Known about the structure:
Rossmann fold, six-stranded mixed beta sheet, 430 residues, globular, 14 helices
Amino acid sequence: MSTPSTKSQGLQRVLEATRYLVRFKRGLIDHFSNPKRSITVCFPVEMDDGSVRSFFGYRVLHNNVLGPGKGGLRFHPELSVDEVASLAALMTWKCALIGVPFGGAKGGVACDTKQLSEAELRRITRRYIAELGENIGPHTDIPAPDMYTNEQIMAWVYDTYDRMHPGRNNRPVVTGKPLVQGGIGGRSDATGRGVVLATEYFVARQGLDDRRSLEGLRIVIQGFGNVGIAAARLLVESGAKIIALSDSHGAISDPGGIDIEAASQFKRREGCLSGLHGTTSLSNAELLELPCDILIPAAVASQIHGQNAEHIQARLVVEAANDPVTPEADLLLAARGIPVLPDILANAGGVCVSYFEWVQNIENQSWSELEVTTKLRHRMDNAVESVLAKQTAMRDEYPGDAHAGLLRSAALTLAMEKVASATLERGIWP
């Protein structure tokens, strides 16, 4: 079965949202479909065995009207400039919605980190940053961790840039760094924590039947990487029960609740979740269709689509991953009364805490993890509240319009209104 690309899905959703931006000039809205700048670099790297391999790297700045570009570095063998461009646009809307003064950007290298030594990965990272040159900077375009990158890679990014620009405070050039290099407490859990905070506030405001808290809710999480693990731990702390988990090898379930720490240790030891004592193995497809209160896709795009949306038995879907629900599935779920907390809202915790780290670095401050968590909760609560209010307003303005009733449409419309308004306020130059 084929599924839409991330690029086509993102563009489709932007086009759908533009219907509700009637007070802005058509040409201005069309402009948002294109990135401001797209860079492709090809560079050689000497491998451990003495051979030389060429690697392709990308960096796309979608928009910088609200501030410098912000977005992660993704290392993946199938990475393409089209995927990077789509993800950069998503960052524009995410930053605007959560209220941080950044535009959208994204980048990365087409490589398989599982087949590279640490020394090879270090050389690839350093050469990639050197090739980007002045296209990144503390006040122009700020990278961060993403798929298959981590704080160690961000430390190499910082060190490379710092060596190229001596005598400056270069720490704000990249976020997600180790604490000793100017990182911030709570960054590694930030995206997962944001997912939980958004879910918590939505349930408190909207309810699931008669439930107004996460206490006792049955939750299924697809994906057990950094985001999935952090979300699972925090959900359990909030009183929820994780009844199923998955990774790239398969899925496990336990109606009585999975021990998250035991699952994490088992995964580290065995390399997969399947076989964890006391759990039943099942496929990823079966996991998505389990009866539960909340389903959290935290893996890859297009997991809930036209072929399986009718079989989803969750009462709420929360997008921890980017684009896990296709546009067709959005409408099918809505028709069945299943709301979807969209990615630009639900997983915005990462970029929000990245902003805190950037500010901390600029001001040479150090914030406690409690301060970071408090600030994050405030922003997530405000963002969810604004999206709920916008959804109500759009339903009233466009009665009978299925798209207008989606939380995703409300979130995208809000974000695009902010960027469009800022563009007009600054003026179309010259």
